[in-house]
Amino acid sequence: MTSDLCVAAFRVSSCDFVDFSFGGVNGTIHEITRTETNKNNKGNSGLHTHNTHTEARENEIETFVAKPVGRGNMFERLLIVWALVLIVGVMAARAQSDDAPEPNGPNRSYKLLREDEDWNFLRDPRLRRDPWDKLKCIRLRKNSDDWYLTIGGEAREVWEQIGNDNWGQQPLMNGYLNQRYALSLDFHLGKRVRTFFEFKSGLNSSRQGGPRPIDEKKLDFQAAFLELSTAGTRDWIKIRAGRQQLEYGSGRLVDVREGPNVRLSFDGFKVMAKINSWRIDGFAMRPDVDKPGFFDNVPNHEIGFWGVYAMRPLNRSTSLDAYYLGLNRKHATFQRGKDQEVRHSVGARVSRPIATEQPAWDFDYEALWQFGSFGSAKIRAWTMASETGYRLTSVALKPRFSAKFDVSSGDHPKSNPNTLGTFNPLFPKGNYFGVLATTGPGAVNFIDFHPKLDLTFPHSITASFDWIVQWRQSLEDGVYSVPGSLIRAADGSRERFVGQRPGVEVRWQVNPHLWFQADYGIFYAGRFLKDTQPGRNLNYWALWAGYKF
After folding, report:
1. CA pair distance 291, 296, nearest whole angstrom
2. How many angstroms separate the CA atoms of 381 and 371, rounded?
3. What is the secondary structure of 426-468 as a DSSP string?
4. How far is CA 492 from the centre of its chain?
5. What are the two backbone dihedrals, phi and then psi, of residue 27, each rounded to the nearest 5 degrees?
6. Which of 342, 340, 338 is nearest to 328 (CA)?
7. pTM above 0.90?
8. Four-residue CA torsion sign, 519, 525, 526, 532
């Protein structure tokens, strides 16, 4: 009964979105370049930008015309979808209440990258407890456990509202509905061959100015690749070719852009290897250009992205990441101007996970050096990021106290005209600074201090309260967005203080499939923003509901 209801609800929500009109978190660096491409190939590229703005409006947002939608109808549909998701989720939770996962049982969690999931253990019918388990290990060949299909999916509804975006450069209260739907098909064709397909659909309603490229993508492949591998279990090599997603470390540099409605994909090749304690990836990719239509995404030939990322445990609780990342952008924009950028990034990260069983410290420390060329100028940039926390697992609400301290370099075009000093965040995660997922400043030319409190309540409810304070690292450089595009030029201001943002996030994980979340944050404009004008306070809140299977 529960399984039938779940399938029905997913179909209802999937059909319901068809009737909607179509229209940082995480815009990415390739969106900035697409601005330049639009200007050089106007009318034939279909390329786009994220939230960017300068006095010359060189990075003005390109949007697509949205059909008018009645707010009453939109809210009715939103309430219907959320009500269906809630009913199905609660019934599923009751059905699973007597089947709690075993402490050391197989991993049933849903991964950020669905291709990382392994459901082959469900070939044993005795381990099938969830209503969706019948779709997780569908045998494709009799008497062969290595030939099977895994089906997964997701539905996500987000009402997002932003007031005074970019501190008043868009002085209005802009509220809109984003919907995301995904379906994945993972074919395992023996021990050495695998094909993976994931479809994505992102829809936007009621955004003033129309949807941004991170808001709408009617239908396309999120991933579609062929994987060949050796049959080893201890040491192995895998080769992937096709459309893929990349996500490494904490997501400071390379992430899937999970917060915004439309995720980021790359086209290219990746080689993965497991050698003793090392896990090593090498790749050569181009980011996709997200167009709003049906199956019309193409690789961005303006940008090349390649690198090697290696990981290994140092002991039972600490791990090391070391990496080299290369980026070539034919048209890159910083405060000093536009030119071709060839940038090399070399860095390392040491981390320890958050405690779950006993009180303990956790940390995440990362340092990075960048060099290369920007036209005829050199590139010399850097960043250091740290997060240190302590969780009290033995007291009520299991509080975790943590603090981040981050610095990234800015440019000095007057005092050092032959060297670009602006750090490039490459392809970072959208909610780099917490709840401001698609607006606000990014990790470029900044110094920040970021304390946070996390609490765990009964019934799988969590809450976090944080406060971020931010300054400019270089007074000759401006403020950039999360993907790295200039949103406020320095304009000769000698003020360093950008502003501060308190925020709160509450999440309810109803069961392994269903979750709800609410975010609120307000960025109080500091002296720099008021000096360069406009300097209004930025308001942000969002309501989320999601279901995965």
Report:
1. 6
2. 7
3. -B--TTTTSS--SSSB-SSSEEEEEEEEEEEETTTEEEEEEEE
4. 34
5. -70, 165
6. 342
7. no
8. positive
Q: Which residues of 291-306 are buried (b: 16+ CB within 10 A; e: fewer)?
A: bbeeeebebbebbbbb
User: Among all chains, which residue has been given the structure tokens 């253990």?
Assistant: 121
Give 447's contacts (C-beta < 8 A, 6+ positions apart): 406, 407, 470, 471, 472, 473
Length of the chain, in residues: 549
Structure tokens at 506: 């509450």
In the chain, the amino acid numbered 205 is S
Query: Distances from the Cα of 17 to the Cαs of 78, 181, 205, 312, 420, in angstroms?
Result: 10, 9, 10, 43, 46
Taking CA 431 as the corner, what is the angle to CA 38 and CA 429, rounded to the nearest 5 degrees?
Answer: 60
H or E element at residue 111 = none
As a whole number of angstroms, the longest Cα–Cα distance in the chain is 73
Terminal C-alpha separation, the chain: 16
Q: Contact at 8 Å (CB) between 531 and 542?
A: no
Question: pLDDT tens for residues 380-427?
Answer: 999 999 999 999 999 999 999 999 999 999 999 999 999 999 999 999
Q: Residue 411: enclosing H or E segment and its boundaries?
A: none
Would you state the structure tokens that stand for residue 21, as one six-digit string?
Answer: 């009109």
Of 463, 450, 456, nearest to 506 by C-alpha is: 463
Write the pLDDT tens digit of every residue in 222-231.
999 999 999 7
Which residues does 204 contact at the CB level (< 8 Å), separation at least 6?
Answer: 22, 23, 66, 176, 177, 178, 179, 211, 215, 216, 261
- Residue 229: closest CA among 115, 314, 334: 115
Distance in angstroms (rounded) separating the CA atoms of residues 161 and 71: 14
